[in-house]
Amino acid sequence: MQGFDPDRISVRSAHFIGGRYVEGGSNTIDVKRPSDGVNYAGLPVADADLVDQAVQDSRNAFKNSDWARCAPRERARILRRWADLIEADVKTLAPLEALGSTRPIRDAAGWDLPFTAEGIRFYAEWADKIGGEVASTRADHLGMTIAEPYGVIGAVVPWNFPLVTTSWKVGPALAAGNAMVLKPSEMTPFSVLRMAELAVEAGVPKGIFNVVQGDGRTTGDALCRHPGIAKVTFTGSTRTGAAIMAACAESGTKAVTLELGGKSPQVVFADVHDLEKTARTVARAITTNAGQVCVAGSRLIVQKSIADQFVERLSAIFAELKPGSTWEPETTLCPIISSREMERIDGIVQRTAAQGGRIVTGGQGISMGNGGAFYQPTILTDVDQHMEAIRNEIFGPVISVQTFDDEAQALALADHPDYGLAAGVHTADIGRALRLARGIEAGTVWINRYGRTADFVIPTGGYKRSGIGKDLGRQAYEANLRTKSVLVDFSE
Ligand code: NAD
């Protein structure tokens, strides 16, 4: 897709409740374009009263519309139509996504949108697949479990892939017959509104998918604590995930799904078939979206005999990237979401260097002369398990390098004390690959690749403090259902 002029895109700054845009809220937040720092909209913050209005509206829609009761294939048909509308809306939706987020227009149009639409189609296909089970009881009883929707599910999502993450929440929730009230990130609030508008156009009853805008402390917290919310599904940082879990417990125990942060290793053995291909895979895993990806492969663990050569290749590949605004089609290195986030990233890099780490390449911001926040793809060597760059999620284009002699050392280094979201293993030895796949404590292990494919059937989610439960796959669909047990006694 071509580039676009950001000043020609207008946004509707509102909430979306009951099938229409709703103004109102306690105050406003400035929303900036990460590519040039321009303040392009003021976002209304939904207070507890407005959140209450959105949840009540969704509850009414859940109870009074046919959404939960209609033939599941009818729900599926509407969801498929929604997916088609999203895909067909590329000229509006892709620039809207690119404008305020870090997603370059080419990626937003060529990947995010089709991935969002196909994810919704994937869940539409589940709508009539899981209804429950018949239990093996004595012959004069009939026991069954009936799968039922929860009611209204509250969703809170981050800024890094606004449309895609929303589809992972709303797709399975709606396919299973639930209603949803979703709060996007206050940094990327607008594309999701358009998505909600298209849902109504596709035939999703008004109120089944409501969107409330605002910050986490006011709007997000009020949503998670609302008694009308039956379950909360969250994607974001581990710290916020813990706060949400506490809020859910304090407000009367609710089920939670938490997709949280990561510090994922990429383990490279000297026997890889194609060193160049592996180097490109490793580089992509830390520079896609400028490393602002939950599963970013931020810890390279490479066999000593090829380490220097491999780091050299990585540096050369990093140098090929072209930083630029998200509205320029040639951009291959996107901005950091905000200058504050960029300073945080740089702080971790500089403190690690002060602790003895060595900056081999990168290590500072890139000035584009336009107020945008960009950071050089960075390689840190001479690091150990106690340094900040190894311990903490950086969420930027920064990769640390540790070396090993043998498999046992590789496995020990791959293990992280806190996180367990994903891992990559690169080797020509299938036995070794499978030993590591078993051995590494992570929710996903990729062998000789890194990153998700369009296989929506494979779930994603973390071990340890990287999360609870799964997005994607059958698991995410089932997580949007609760089970009722029914026992019929027809004995004489
Ligand atoms: P964040 O935790 O700061 O914010 C995420 C969302 O939570 C935002 O909408 C925010 O407004 C809201 N929020 C903040 N405090 C809240 C509170 N007390 N109550 C309710 N809501 C609150 O995360 P972020 O900076 O937007 O996103 C980056 C993080 O998300 C990284 O840690 C990344 O790893 C993680 N992430 C994880 C996955 C995954 O699938 N595991 C995917 C994408 C991002």
Automatic annotation (TrEMBL):
The family database entries (InterPro entries) matched by this protein are listed as:
Ald_DH/histidinol_DH, Ald_DH_C, Ald_DH_CS_GLU, Ald_DH_N, Aldehyde_DH_dom
**What Pfam families does the record tag this protein with?**
Aldedh
Q: Does the keyword Oxidoreductase apply?
A: yes
Q: Where is the Aldehyde dehydrogenase domain?
A: 21-486
Superkingdom of this entry's organism? Bacteria
Swiss-Prot/TrEMBL keywords: Oxidoreductase
Recorded hits in SUPFAM superfamilies, A to Z, give:
ALDH-like
List the catalytic residues: E259
Q: Which family does it belong to?
A: Belongs to the aldehyde dehydrogenase family.
Q: What PANTHER family is this protein classified in?
A: ALDEHYDE DEHYDROGENASE-RELATED (PTHR11699)
The name this protein carries in UniProt is Aldehyde dehydrogenase family protein
Q: What is the lineage of its organism?
A: Bacteria, Pseudomonadati, Pseudomonadota, Gammaproteobacteria, Oceanospirillales
